[in-house]
Amino acid sequence: MAEIIPLPSKRTPREPEPLWRDALGDLLRRLRHERGERLADTADRAGVSPQYLSEIERGLKEPSSEMIAAVAGALEVTLVELTAAVADDLRVRAAERAVVGVRAAYTLAA
Questions:
Q1: Closest CA to 40 of 28, 58, 22, 54
Q2: Measured at the alpha carbon of residue 15, what is the angle toward residues 4 and 25, in degrees to the nearest 5?
Q3: What is the pLDDT of residue 12?
Q4: Topology given in CATH for the domain delimited by 20-109
Q5: Listed residue (33, 28, 17, 30) closest to 90, CA to CA
Q6: Neighbouring C-alpha atoms within 13 Å toward the C-beta of 53
Q7: I need a surface site. Which of 27, 64, 68, 69 has the fewest CB within 10 A?
């Protein structure tokens, strides 16, 4: 039987959470740049158009799991590695937002 994970308590967000597609796109672009590849090279291996890959990287498209797998394969990373890296990036962003929120609250209190 599946484990039920409790939802976090309700709170008023200071700024919107980053979208998964934005974090995914940022990571895909970073991976591509680290490999020193042009958009067209990676897109060709993934079987997508350079325009579509560009839109994924900019967070403008919500790619299907098949498209994510194709681009991950073209960048020689597994879906597990890609998903874990996106989750790590989102955790870092959340921690940064929390620090900024604490600083803002401290400044307002002073």
A1: 54
A2: 75
A3: 56
A4: 434 Repressor (Amino-terminal Domain) (1.10.260)
A5: 17
A6: 26
A7: 64
* Residue given tokens 């403008």 in the structure block: 60
Kindly list the domain boundaries of the chain, sorted by start residue: 20-109
DSSP 43-106: HHHHTS-HHHHHHHHTT-----HHHHHHHHHHTT--HHHHHHHHHHHHHHHHHHHHHHHHHHHH
CB 21 within 8 A of CB 63: yes
Burial code of 12-21, b = ≥16 C-beta within 10 A, e = fewer? eeeeeeeeeb
pLDDT tens track for 72-92: 999 999 999 999 999 999 999
- Please tell me the pTM assigned to this model: 0.75
Question: For residue 72, what pLDDT is reported?
Answer: 97
Comparison of pLDDT for 85 and 17, the residue scoring more: 85
